[in-house]
Write a structure and sequence with these properties.
The complex is a heterodimer of chains A (about 200) and B (about 160).
Chain A (H helix, E strand, L loop, with lengths): L13 H15 L6 E6 L18 E6 L5 E3 L2 E2 L2 H12 L25 E6 L5 H27 L3 H9 L7 H14 L4 E3 L7
Helix pairs in contact in A: 2-3, 3-5, 4-5
Chain B lengths: L19 H15 L15 E2 L3 E2 L6 E7 L3 H7 L4 E4 L2 E3 L3 H11 L10 E6 L5 H13 L4 E8 L8
Parallel strand pairs in B: 1-7, 3-6, 6-7
Antiparallel strand pairs in B: 3-4, 4-5
Classes of the chains: A alpha/beta (about 200), B alpha/beta (about 160).
Chain lengths: ~200, ~160
Amino acid sequence: MAKRSAPEVNAGSMADIAFLLLIFFLVTTTIETDAGLNRKLPPIEDQPEDPPPLKKKNIFQVLINQNNDILVEDEPMEIGNIRQAAIDFIDNGGQDCDYCQGKGDPASSDNPIKAVVSLQHVRETEYATYIAVQNELVAAYNTLRNREAQRLFGENFTTMEANFNDGGYEGNKESLEEKITQIREMYPLKLSEAEPKERE
Amino acid sequence: MSKFKKKKSGDLPAISTASLPDIVFMLLFFFMVATTMRETTLMIQNDLPFADQVEKLQKKDLVMYIYAGKPSARYQSQFGTEARIQLNDKFADIGDIKQFILQEKESKREELQNKLTTSLKVDQETNMGLVSDIKYELRKAEAYRINYTTRTGDAAQNMQ
């Protein structure tokens, strides 16, 4: 094969092409945003009042020990089962709850408004386990809220919330807020976190 | 092999620079795709745990970041392997958090001050003891809105 001198390639339009690509990426790039579980911390009380008496049956106790074992109501439980257990507890509907679909077990919670989830951990608990449990508890509430939002408004609660926080949402924000508040009142997220117990 | 040793004529042909922009732009694109924006240099390990019930953090300017985790390998000789807190670019103690929060609050306009969220970026191997200390400090500083920042994924992955 005889080597011939290659003709010069015209590179004049190269810049155009490169700029076209550059502009395309500039327009389509979104900077990654962080996501996570939102929580609200309780204020510190100077004089701790006696907590209002809660019936034992209205408390769903979750404990994570130093070996990252999860104890629900003093029974060991796998992480995968917590969500359903929490749903069963919150949605039990023992009394005064016309939208609950639980079994109505008298030994479980009265209604979602009275139901309290208590999450306890020790200082040696790993953060990952704690987040996994938090996630499952939030999931339980989200499942129930979604169900009621679907029934009442034909829309998922999580979508409603995302729309509400989205600046570009074009619907009626006020009615959306009302709907969200209504669902939140039906299933208030009552998560009590005690200070970690020192290990004896 | 002899293919490459042909023609040892004296005059050097001019190297075409037409492909130079290609190379440069290839690099540019590589970095564009691979870059994640990060304001602070991390001095700790920061493998966030997984969760799937996440909400997005809105309005980046209203977020304060607290990092915690074991110091990364190059700082371990100096700071040990015990999990520590990082605020901005330096290691901090539990007691510094309150000051940090108040400073951040002060730098924002008044009507936005109670909309600040604290994002906790905590390594998944950290003990909860440190996290609950941080939370107690935040309560003292009256920064009640927090966000446990996580990676999106199945929470069961945390248990391995």
